[in-house]
Amino acid sequence: MVVSLSLLSCRCVRPCAQWRDMQYKELHERPINAETMDTIETGQWHVVLNDARPKNYEEISHGCMLGTGTNLYSDKLLCFVLYANGETGTHVEHSPLDATIWARLWEYIMQHETYTAAGELPPEESTRDISPARLLKWDLEGFQDGLAAAKAYTARLIGDVDLKVVRSPFGKRVMKALKVSPDGFVQMCIQLGFYRVHQRVCLTYESASTRMFYHGRTDTIRPVSDESVAFCKGVDDESVPRSQVQHDLKEAIRIQTTRKVDAVCGLAVDRHMLGLYLTSMEMGMKPPEIFMDKAWSLPYELSTSQTPTKLASFYVDEKCAVGGGFGPVVKQGYGFSYIFVGEDDVYFFVSSMKSAANTDSGRLVQAVSEAMLSVRDTLAY
Predict the structure, then answer these.
(1) CA–CA gap between residue 160 and residue 325 (Å, rounded)
(2) Contact 309/340 with Cβ under 8 angstroms?
(3) pTM of the shown model
(4) d(Cα 296, Cα 192) in Å, to the nearest integer?
(5) Which of 10, 40, 149, 237 is the most exposed place for a label (fewest CB within 10 A)?
(6) How far, in whole angstroms, is CA 205 from its chain's centroid?
(7) d(Cα 284, Cα 286) in Å, to the nearest integer?
(8) Residues labelled catalytic
């Protein structure tokens, strides 16, 4: 029986969690398994040789984010996924690091890769000795049923993810010509797209990097404001003067930009409040009343993040990666990642769950693409 590495690393789904709790310790107690697991868990990263030949970014992304259910080890910090047709990507574990690190890694790799005049890779310059590959061995007697159940459940989860990758109608060249923040522009497009699909606004998370601080990770930018709501409601309402719609949009972008700068500089509120809440729990206190308010329990139906680019001086557009994505943080929500590639392209990575009652990744990303035209025209009014 071939062991699925992903089944040994799926702590987050119930059958797999039960498998780990009930049988993982016993699996380790067998010497041959303990040696194999030590080899797996002490490796710096994994290389995944995928037989698939993806035809587009969407297929590449699906294989990197979800895999087949048997080829990704989700506890590992980094899995390089190599496809049979030469395409490649990564599957990463988010807990210790944020997207900024992986963006820098890919940017360095792609900006430094070189080829000979014949289009071949140059001779290997490394002088390190690499141990020859060997087949890892297992003793799985008595574990087959648990592994089979975990495999079936993982397959259902993978099949439930609705992932779309779409190139935008235009890039930040147009946005900068309109004298607004490109990130604020896209965030308002996401707000308008969501509003047009669902006829309401929702709590939205946007990631801010706090790496200017020692041990800094992220904080929360909250793109939704009274002005962004007024814009979403007014842009398709012919009774609202266009000048008012434009004013609301510009103010919404200005507020989002201010909140972004505040978050990057350590002046946001979410991480501070989380620290206070966790401190009260560690001290055995009853959580303060503010944490009982409904506002603190609202789900982030839109979880958004911009993948950074141009992290080093040697950057050129022709060797830029096209970003990556992540899953929704709640079942009835979306994961929405985007990356600016040069001056003329933005790539959207949108995910949701097919089994959710009201989400549709394709419909949302189409609405956001159309919203870009509406936001552009409103600003140019």
Answers:
(1) 16
(2) yes
(3) 0.91
(4) 24
(5) 237
(6) 12
(7) 7
(8) 94
